[in-house]
Amino acid sequence: MLTVNSINCGIVIDHIAAGNGIKIFEKLKLDEVDFPVVLLINVPSRKLGRKDIIKIENKIDVDLTMLGLIDPNITVNIIENDKIVKKMNTIIPEEVQGLFKCKNPRCVSNFDEYVTPKFHLAKANGKIHYRCGYCEELTTYSI
Amino acid sequence: MSLKGRHLIDPNDFSLSELDEIFDLADRMADDRDSFGNICNGKILGTLFYEPSTRTRLSFESAMLRMGGKVLGFSDAGTSSVSKGESIADTIRVLSSYADVVVMRHPKEGAPKLASEYSLIPVINGGDGGHQHPTQTLTDLLTIRRYRGTLENQTIAFCGDLKFGRTVHSLISAMSYYKGSKFVLISPAELRLPGHLKSSLIEKHNVGIYETENLEEVINQVDVLYMTRIQKERFFNEADYMRLKDSYILSRSKLKDSREDMLVMHPLPRVNEISYDVDDDKRAVYFKQAEFGIYVRMALMALLLGVNVNVNRK
Asked: Does the beta carbon of B89 lie under 8 angstroms from any beta carbon of chain A?
């Protein structure tokens, strides 16, 4: 079994569905930082079977909304002095603005530079769908 | 809540009682049009037609002119500042100082909604791509209400292009708010009502829906038969259009099994989906429907402008 040291002060993003770790790693631009970061993939998990974990030896602002859009099961642990001081769940936002585009090729938000695409949560069971605030088409966020 | 200053982007922007207010006024205008000939003196309608339309644009212009108002605008995006790359937001901000109410038709879905976010005057959606066409819906609702006396407990069959037909999407969505509405959807498999709309109708309103490809199977069971044109401009592929364009043609002989009081409606223009021999059948109400479109647009604009409509009231 591979062993990775625990972090002293920072953030652990846990319960990432296997395969999404690298995508979140890229989305958070962790390949550009100058502090230690570990990406663990295919870690055995009782809850998920296999999961990915990201350990960050620093406190950075993590966008829980963005993480919630990617995978609502993700948890974020804040570590201080080798101890978890805060556990946070991701947020499935009711309203989303500008994070992704409408999938409808005829939607005005894909043409007019003035428009910031905006969406309302349409369904949270299993898959997350968002209804476009302009054309009402359903879009599913994917990374 | 007053309708003055409001936008009409989606038929469901208004409550059922607000729709009744529009229909009541439209009824009065239909019965006594001349009395309303000056209620919009000094008011200007701006017409922003980013794609060609004859019927809707002329209907709006006629409605404003019949109330004593004036009209300005463009009927082709190529002759406007749009061709120079102006955004919808800038266009509507400027037009807000030129007119008192604006109607917009645009090929991109959601464009009138975007305009309403920047407009200082009421914006009316005159059709946005395959999305919504709310004033056609108000016209359709007024027609059903005038002929049947109520909008409740109606079984409406929609026939033809249910995938791209925005008049269908708007009307079915609006009718689902009325008690006892049932829908029969007649289309080829490729032109069925979009799944998201169907699931939303069932989830939100629990309406009865029956789908078939066979018009004759259901024609004797419906109160309203709403025919639609297979729209060439909505197809990316000409071959698909050619294959589907003659899917349904309503002729007088097909009407023989339908109820005596059934209404045959059509948003017009038709191509060949209703034979000319149906026109003088008493069930054919599509030309009256077009006429009611004037009154419903007159009533709508008068109420959005907040002009005095209490003419000749006893």
From this structure: yes
Domain co-membership, B36 together with B85: yes
Say if B237 falls within a structural domain.
yes
- pLDDT digit string (tens) for chain B, length 314 residues: 799 999 999 988 999 999 999 999 999 999 999 999 999 999 999 999 999 888 899 999 999 999 999 999 988 777 666 666 788 999 999 999 999 999 999 999 999 999 999 999 999 999 998 888 999 999 999 999 999 999 999 999 999 989 888 889 889 989 999 999 999 999 988 889 988 788 878 878 888 999 999 999 999 999 999 999 887 766 667 877 777 777 789 999 999 989 999 999 999 989 889 999 999 999 999 999 999 999 999 999 999 999 999 987 65
* Bridge pairing between strands B224-227 and B263-265: parallel
Specify whether B80 is located in the same domain as B160.
Answer: no
Q: Indicate whether B91 and B32 sit together in one domain.
A: yes
| Global confidence as pTM | 0.85
Cβ-based neighbours of B304, under 8 Å, separated by 6 or more: B3, B4, B5, B6, B8, B101, B122, B124
Q: Do B283 and B138 share a domain, yes or no?
A: yes
Among A114, A134, A138, beta carbon nearest to B110: A134
Phi, psi of B32 (to 5 degrees): -150, 65
Query: Which residues have CB under 8 Å from A120's CB, separation 6+?
Result: A94, A95, A130, A131, A133
The answer to the question of residue B186 being in a domain is yes
- Facing residues of A13 across strands? A54, A76
- Domains of chain A (ranges, CATH numbers): 10-89 (3.30.70.140), 95-139 (2.30.30.20)
Q: Number of residue pairs across A and B with CB atoms under 8 Å?
A: 53
**Residue B111: closest CA among chain A residues belongs to which residue?**
A108
Whether B59 is in a domain gets the answer yes
Report d(CA B246, CA B244) in Å as an integer.
Answer: 6
Q: CB A137 to CB B196 under 8 A?
A: yes
CB-CB under 8 Å, A113 with B110 = no
Residue B27, domain extent: 11-132+293-305
Beta strands in B140-233 (DSSP E): 155-159, 182-186, 208-212, 224-227
CATH of the domain at B115: 3.40.50.1370
Enumerate residues 6+ apart whose C-beta is below 8 A from A86: A77, A78
User: Chain B residue with minimal CA distance to A123?
Assistant: B200
